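Renewal narrative, Specific Aim 1. Our central claim is that a sequence can be written position by position from structural information alone. The example that follows is taken directly from our test logs and has not been curated for this report. It begins with the C-alpha cells describing the chain, in the order in which they were read.
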C-alpha cells in the first residue's frame, strides 16, 4: 500500500495556488480560509496526523503507536480506560499502551485512538454537543467500521485507510453545521441524505458536503487517498453498485449504515433479517462476515460509551 502524503505540497494547490471547487460560493472553504473569516473551522491536532502516519509503516506500527500516544498523557489515559472496558474482556487491567497493544492488539488500540481524536476534532466549539451531533457521530463510526470490513475484501492492506475515510466521510456536514445558519433546515434535520442531499446543498449553497470535506482533508494534508474517498462518497446512486473496487467501499458502508438508522439500538444478530438480500449481495460479504461486522460495531460503540461515562 502506498499512501501519498503531502509533505512537499503547498497548503492548497491550483492555478492560483488554491484548489478551487466552487469559487463563487460564499461557503467555499478555500475562500473562508483565505479571508480568515470568523468561523470556527475544525482543526486537526498533530497527534491525529501522527496516528494516520502510523499506517504508513505497518512493520513498526505497535512501537510507533506507543510513541504517539505516550506523548499525550490525557489522551493516553483515555485510550487505556477504553482498553480496560468490559468490551475487550481483559482479566487483568492494562496499565500501559505497550501492555494494551500486546493484549488487545494494535488494530483495536489504533481504532479507538483515531475514533477518540476524530470525535474531538468534530466537537462543536460552542453550543455544546446536540442530538444531531450524536446521530452524526455514530453514523460516522458505524460507516468506518463497515468500510473497514467491506474494504478488507478488496484490499486488506488498506483497511485502516477505509476506516479513517469512513470516519471522516461526512466531515463536510460538520463544517456546514458550523458555518451555514440554516443547514439543518436544508437537510431536513438529517432526514434527507445521499444524492438528494447533495443536490439540495448544491442548489442552496453552491457547494456540497463531500467537496467541503475533501477540501478540509486537503487543507489538513491528510493522505490524498482519504481525500479522494471522502470527496467521491456520493458519486454513486445508492443501490446501483456492487463493491468491485476501492471507490465503492465508503459509499457501500454509508448506505448500509443509513439503512440501519439509529446507532444506539441493538440490531440483533441475523444479517439476513436485518439487511435486504440485494444489499448483502452487493456488499460481496458472506452473511457471517456481515454479522461479525455488526457485532464489532456494537462492541466498540459500547466501549466508547463506557469510556465517556465510566461507571
Ligand atoms: Fe455524505
Ligand atoms: Fe454518511
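The sequence written for that structure reads:
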Amino acid at each position: 500500500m502506498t499512501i501519498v502524503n503531502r509533505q512537499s505540497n503547498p497548503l492548497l494547490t491550483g492555478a492560483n495556488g488554491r484548489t478551487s471547487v466552487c469559487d463563487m460560493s460564499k461557503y467555499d472553504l478555500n475562500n473562508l480560509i483565505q479571508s480568515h473569516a470568523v468561523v470556527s473551522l475544525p482543526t486537526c491536532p498533530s497527534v491525529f496526523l501522527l496516528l494516520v502516519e502510523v499506517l504508513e509503516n505497518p512493520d513498526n506500527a505497535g512501537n510507533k503507536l506507543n510513541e504517539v500516544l505516550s506523548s499525550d498523557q490525557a489522551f493516553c489515559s483515555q485510550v487505556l480506560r477504553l482498553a480496560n472496558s468490559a468490551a475487550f474482556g481483559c482479566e487483568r487491567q492494562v496499565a500501559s499502551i505497550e501492555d494494551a497493544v500486546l493484549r488487545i492488539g494494535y488494530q483495536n488500540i489504533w481504532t479507538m485512538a483515531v475514533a477518540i481524536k476524530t470525535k474531538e476534532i468534530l466537537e462543536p466549539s460552542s453550543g455544546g454537543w446536540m442530538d444531531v451531533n450524536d446521530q452524526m457521530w455514530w453514523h460516522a463510526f458505524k460507516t468506518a467500521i463497515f468500510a473497514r470490513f467491506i474494504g478488507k475484501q478488496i484490499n486488506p492492506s488498506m483497511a485502516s485507510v477505509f476506516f479513517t475515510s469512513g470516519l471522516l466521510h461526512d466531515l463536510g456536514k460538520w463544517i456546514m453545521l458550523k458555518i451555514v445558519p440554516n443547514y439543518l433546515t436544508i437537510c431536513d434535520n438529517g432526514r434527507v441524505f445521499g444524492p438528494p442531499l447533495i443536490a439540495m446543498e448544491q442548489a442552496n449553497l453552491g457547494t456540497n458536503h463531500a467537496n467541503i470535506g475533501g477540501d478540509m482533508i486537503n487543507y489538513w494534508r491528510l493522505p490524498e487517498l482519504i481525500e479522494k474517498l471522502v470527496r467521491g462518497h456520493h458519486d454513486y446512486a445508492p443501490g446501483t453498485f456492487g463493491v468491485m473496487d476501492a471507490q465503492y467501499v465508503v459509499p457501500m458502508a454509508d448506505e448500509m449504515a443509513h439503512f440501519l438508522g439509529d446507532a444506539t439500538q441493538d440490531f440483533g444478530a441475523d444479517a439476513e433479517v436485518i439487511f435486504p438480500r440485494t444489499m448483502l449481495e452487493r456488499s460481496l460479504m458472506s452473511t457471517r462476515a456481515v454479522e461479525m461486522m455488526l457485532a464489532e460495531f456494537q462492541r466498540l460503540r459500547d466501549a466508547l460509551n463506557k469510556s465517556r461515562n465510566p461507571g
